[in-house]
Design brief:
There is one protein chain. The chain has 17 helices and 21 strands. The protein has 474 residues and is an alpha/beta fold. Residues 1-6 have low confidence and may be disordered. 33% of the residues lie in helices and 23% in strands. The chain has helices at 20-31, 46-51, 53-70, 75-79, 86-96, 103-111, 158-161, 166-171, 186-197, 217-229, 323-341, 352-355, 374-379, 395-400, 433-441, 446-449, 462-472, and strands at 10-16, 36-40, 115-118, 121-125, 128-131, 134-144, 148-150, 178-182, 201-205, 233-235, 240-244, 252-256, 262-265, 267-270, 274-276, 310-312, 358-361, 367-371, 384-390, 407-413, 418-425. It folds into three domains: 10-45 and 102-148 and 275-352, FAD/NAD(P)-binding domain (3-Layer(bba) Sandwich), CATH 3.50.50; 158-272, FAD/NAD(P)-binding domain (3-Layer(bba) Sandwich); 365-472, Enolase-like, domain 1 (2-Layer Sandwich).
């Protein structure tokens, strides 16, 4: 492995970005015998390892464990009204990021026979990449896997306010006394749960009616209720029009729209979307627009580039901005690159990122979903039926937590008699999701699902209840 680019500057495959996506592309091509190099300008392991999935879930897990204990008689009496040790939670979070050092990830690349060059990579023409002023050439493929950046709105006073993005929200070393969160998507909902549990006075500002607007409405409603019970001030139909922070070390004032007045906080977090990290990677040298999302086919080849050598994998193709989906795409892309390089037919295609995308939101309570919502399915022209059931009435859920509150929905394509979407909301529902993912991805007929018998007494019995409700037409 080389950090300086020593040796031959010609590779079979050049991968731009060493996050989970780039690592997986490189792993597949290297395992196929192709000389592969990865270029990374920050930490090997990428956003997920240091500023997203891993640290955020580490922050959230402690409060989830404490909540679980408080929800069960016997354990509840033992923990009483105990609170989290914020310093210990932050220390545990930091341990999962290896204190933002990537030695372990670099060692993995080395063990897999993948070379590393540190620096900013830019395309300079077909199959060529410049790093630190030196040009490298790919015989077969360049895979663009740089990920995405938080997108901030254009607001008066934004720069002076020095707002948090998802990076600061997952890496902060101290707990802010007052935290304002703008945006109620996944990051906003999760960080509201995490920091309120650590002792912050959190205000969540939503432009719409509820958090998680892309999920089933009942999921957002239950999350809003759960966050409010935790002490989060959830404000709907509210936008920020201006920010003021005259003292860099002082509080920030958020000016709200209409007659909603002002909100003062110690920190403000914006969770208002993502932008592709493609503005400075030389797309113009191959006829593409800098800063754009890259359109790809189902083998992750970029449209509009002659010669079939440029691949865009993960967030940058905008198909599904989730780590596990990016890794799925990476496995497809790696196999496609190897097949084309070796003159074999390409027999793989990415399809699950369009029809069966699973996602867990680790908020209060958890939300787990796969496939389409009922509304989204109807918009595709399908004739569908949404089947709902009270998850708390299942024996396994009642045993899981006293007064368990949750809900489940399956969306059935009435013509094909298969599931096109499933959503669970409630404590611990993330572990229910893979069964739903298999049912949706494999297009298992409803009639066959009756023969997948759930174990008693587990929450998985929700499947039996949903099927009974569907059968009975209620």
């Amino acid at each position: 492995m080389s950090d300086s680019g020593s040796g031959s500057n010609e590779y079979d495959v050049i991968v731009i970005g060493a996050g989970p996506v780039g690592e997986n592309v490189a792993d597949r091509t290297s395992a196929a015998g192709l000389r592969t190099v990865v270029v990374e300008r920050e930490l090997v392991g990428g956003e997920c390892s240091y500023w997203a999935c891993i640290p955020s879930k580490a922050l959230l897990r402690s409060s989830a464990a404490l909540d679980a204990a408080k929800a069960v008689g016997g354990a509840r009496e033992a923990v009483g009204d105990g609170r989290l040790d914020a310093a210990a939670v932050l220390e545990r979070r930091t341990s999962f990021t290896s204190d933002w050092k990537d030695d372990g990830q670099v060692s993995w690349l080395e063990s897999a026979g993948i070379e590393l060059i540190r620096g900013d990579a830019r395309l300079s023409g077909p199959r060529t990449v410049v790093v630190n002023g030196e040009e490298y050439r790919a015989r077969h493929a360049v895979a663009v896997c740089p990920g995405s950046d938080p997108r901030l709105p254009s607001l008066p006073g934004l720069d002076e306010a020095r707002p948090w993005t998802s990076r600061e929200a997952t890496s902060a070393r101290t707990v802010p006394g007052r935290l304002a969160i703008v945006g109620g998507g996944v990051v906003g909902a999760e960080m509201a749960a995490a920091w309120s549990a650590l002792g912050s006075e959190v205000t969540l500002l939503l432009r719409g009616e509820r958090p998680l607007p892309r999920m089933e409405p009942f999921a957002g409603d239950l999350v809003a209720e759960g966050l409010a019970a935790r002490g989060v001030d959830v404000r709907t139909g509210t936008s920020v029009t201006e920010l003021r922070r005259p003292d860099p070390d002082g509080p920030v004032t958020l000016v709200l729209d209409g007659d909603k007045g002002e909100l003062v906080a110690d920190e403000v977090l914006f969770t208002t979307g993502r932008s592709p990290r493609t503005g400075d990677i030389g797309l113009e040298t191959v006829g593409l627009e800098p800063g754009s999302w890259l359109i790809v086919d189902d083998t992750l080849l970029v449209d509009g580039v002659e010669g079939g050598w440029l691949y865009a994998v993960g967030d940058v193709n905008h198909r599904a901005l989730l780590t596990h989906q990016g890794k799925y795409q990476a496995r497809i892309a790696g196999e496609a690159i190897a097949a084309r390089a070796q003159g074999r037919p390409v027999t793989v295609a990415a399809t699950a990122d369009a029809t069966a995308v699973p996602q867990v939101v680790f908020t209060e309570p958890e939300v787990a979903s796969v496939g389409l919502t009922a509304e989204a399915a109807q918009k595709t022209g399908r004739r569908v039926r949404a089947v709902d059931y009270d998850l708390g009435s299942v024996s396994g859920a009642a045993l899981h937590a006293d007064g368990y509150k949750g809900r489940a929905r399956m969306v059935v394509d009435e013509e094909r008699r298969t599931l096109v979407g499933v959503t669970f909301t409630g404590p611990g529902v993330g572990e229910l999701l893979h069964a739903a993912t298999i049912a949706v991805a494999a297009e298992v007929p409803v009639e066959r699902l009756w023969h997948a018998v759930p174990a008693f007494p587990t929450m998985s019995e929700i499947w039996l209840r949903l099927l009974e409700t569907y059968r009975d037409g209620s």
